[in-house]
Amino acid sequence: MLLLDDDVLVPSDLLERLRRHERPVVSALYLDRRPPFRPLAFASMDWGYVPVDLNALAPDAVVRVRTLGCGALLVERAVLEAVAEPWFPEDGRHDPDLGFADNLMLAGIGIEVDLGARCGHILQPADPGCGLTLAIWPEVDERGWRWRIIPTAEDGAEMPRELVIEWKDPSRPEPFRQLVSADAP
């Protein structure tokens, strides 16, 4: 079963790519939609959530993680039959996705992430009603991992040449700004 959140954008070959691994639980890589845009794949939960160190891993590696966001997750039916319900507990202690990962751990089932299967995570409408959606995507090249904000125009909407995105991040004194250009590679 392929689980997809409604705010995750997936490449057309995602299902085939994840199925090739023949693993009970495997996820695509996507980023938190809030600054500092960390991967939603965590190596450990000691002293807080520690995201996987992407720069220490091969760009197409499949890596074991302790917990993750479940926005682009392939799960075998046998896993769902082996895990206690509710699969995504809403107990008020933490995000239901993390509760699902806890249930997997209790059942002795590992979680893996394919770093080569990269998805976008919708940030927000650029301007409600303008027909433009913003998504953050993980990328890697010879310089290492980084993120890119990509605007997507809905049917009939005009794509702007440039757009400045601003977030208020409580951990930063100044708002975070990003210039998005339609001409950027």
Per-chain topology:
Elements lengths: L1 E3 L3 E2 L4 H7 L4 E5 L11 E4 L5 E2 L10 E4 L1 E2 L3 E4 L1 H6 L13 H11 L4 E8 L1 E6 L6 E10 L2 E10 L8 E6 L8 E6 L4
Parallel strand pairs: 3-9
Antiparallel strand pairs: 1-8, 2-10, 3-8, 4-5, 4-7, 6-9, 10-11, 11-12, 13-14
Tally the beta strands.
14
Sketch the major β-sheet: 5 strands, mixed
Q: Roughly how many Å apart are the termini?
A: 34 Å
> Which fold name corresponds to the CATH topology of the domain at 2-118?
Spore Coat Polysaccharide Biosynthesis Protein SpsA, Chain A
Describe what you observe in this structure:
This protein has helices spanning 14-20, 77-82, 96-106, and strands at 2-4, 8-9, 25-29, 41-44, 50-51, 62-65, 67-68, 72-75, 111-118, 120-125, 132-141, 144-153, 162-167, 176-181. The chain is mainly beta and 185 residues long. The protein has a domain at 2-118: Spore Coat Polysaccharide Biosynthesis Protein SpsA, Chain A. It is globular, with a radius of gyration of 17 Å. The relative contact order is 0.20.
